[in-house]
Amino acid sequence: MTVRIAHISDTHLGSRPRDGVRHNIWGQEMKAQLLENDFYERFTEVFERIAALDPPVDLVVHSGDLYNSPWEGNPSQPPVVAQITAIEVLQQFIQNTGIPVVVIEGNHGLFRLYEVSLLDSLRLSVPGLKVATQQDLKEAIREGKPLEFSFEKVDVFCFPFIDPAVLRSSELMSTFDDWITTHQGRDRLRPAIAIAHGMDLDHTLYKSIFSMNYDYIALGHDHRQIRHSPKAWYAGSPERWRFDEARHEKGFLVVDIKTGEDPIVSPQKFEFIRPVLNDKIAISEDDTADSIVEKMESWFAEKGLSVAWDPKTAARIRLVLEGHSKRASSFDVGVALETLRLRVLSQDSPYNIAQLIWILRETGDAEFTSASYPEIESEYLIEDPEEDFKNYLATLEIDKSFDTEILTKIAVASLEYAVGKRSGKMTAQSLTEAEE
Q1: What is the CATH number of domain 2-269?
Q2: Which residue, among 282, 272, 200, 275, has the nearest Cα to 243 in the 3D structure?
Q3: Domain ranges of the chain
Q4: 57-78, pLDDT tens digit by residue?
């Protein structure tokens, strides 16, 4: 027996970049801000594309982070428009196609201190929708029962996000592994898939899932559309959530599954109208604050941004200014760039730019970061900090007596403590325990 599914993930409805953006610009008048609305449009496009597939799919799975908030950096519920969009799009899709949809809970959209889920209200609002929340997972473990849904052609085993620190503090890590191997196993000779939200990077992807002989594992959390193993893929995020994702291909996956065989995965790609640009500009020793501003303006012209304002094509920009000037202090450069940004984002701006973020990275000096650092970038710092810090170390002359691996470990831990990803105090013992 074969089954065809569409795999989507990390839609982050309600993402709302607040800083470094052009003000009073609406994507939906008095409802959704311009850049926030990009995520709603992409969510709608995903389901329109799936509905038009020929041959059609038998099932749609969403592997977590339907909404952007709440999460550890933002405890607020998602905007009302985000919740309305999810309900309307899912209702229309299921009613028009008859194709069932399964959504699991990720680390975004997850309340940390309440035993409720935003997916509970979605489940009540959309007939034909199946959801699996962290509370459903805890109940299944507690009662010793599977967390699965059975459809006409396929069995679906669900693994909503759960922080390994929660399992460790509750001394439930071995219980969780036992539950997976005891209760999440297939018992029929037909296609069986799993949906999980986690990554090796932050130890939220549990190895036991890969021992269960599923025909396909639909993964979420990594925003790249990438193969994890022959039978496990990340669908990636359909919209550019972070600036470093500008280089990623975005879309969803169509997966043809046959029992006992490797799945056939067909990536579906999106083309974007709005540019998201993540680039670097070199600063020389002889640069002044004014010449640095001129370099940025030349960069705008080179990228074709010196045109009339168009909300559909207005660019999002993050620039890293690298180097050290002997003729301008970090403070002087910062003031000049803030003045430039005010002009770039003004109503009579000569540039088609919706968001401008900059970072001044000076060699041999403390890094000065623009005050307008977007909310989405804070998650980036804790999601892939090792590469960032190692790249930074490469720009420095470091005494050979220092171990760069230890320096990186300390820097990564500091970021995680700063944003609340780790609790307690940072000590030599806590650094050692984190590696165990």
Answers
A1: 3.60.21.10
A2: 275
A3: 2-269, 276-383, 391-436
A4: 999 999 999 999 998 778 889 9
